[in-house]
Amino acid sequence: MRVLEARFHPRRREQADFVTLGYLVWREGGMDERPVFEPARAMVPDPVRSKLEYLVGLNEPDSFARLQALRSDYWSFVPIGANEGPGSATSTRQLGS
Q1: Domains in the chain: how many in total?
Q2: E-state strands within 1-97
Q3: CA-CA to 4 of 20 to 30 Å: which in 11, 20, 74, 81?
């Protein structure tokens, strides 16, 4: 299992503050697999979630590696260990479905 923490930087990436939106989880580990989004917050606004889905789709195949290399002022994707995991997210949904 591979996991990326999806972070949004409301005042640009150079600033120290960011919002953890949730986790992108690849359960099988295949390059063509779409990740499951597990929200870290009770509510992720639809426009933000739509942008996240767009970024994942834009960086396929192998979005796990490509999202980590993404050059964006407002988004970052940080790998976390499987043991650190998404915790107790209440809602999961495969992106793009």
Answers
A1: 1
A2: 2-8, 19-26, 36-39, 75-80, 93-94
A3: 11
Q: Report yes or no: 67 and 77 within 8 Å, Cβ to Cβ.
A: yes
Structure confidence at residue 12 (pLDDT): 79
Name residue 37's beta-bridge partners.
24, 93
Q: What is the mean pLDDT of each run of 10 residues along the chain (97 residues)?
A: 94 82 88 88 89 95 94 95 53 52
DSSP state of 30: -
Domain that residue 40 falls in: 2-94
Helices (H), the chain: 46-58, 63-68
Give whole-number Cα distances, 76 to 17, 21, 50, 90, 93, in Å: 12, 11, 16, 23, 20
Nearest alpha carbon to residue 5 among 70, 85, 71: 85
Adjacency order of strands within the sheet including 19-26: 75-80, 2-8, 19-26, 36-39, 93-94
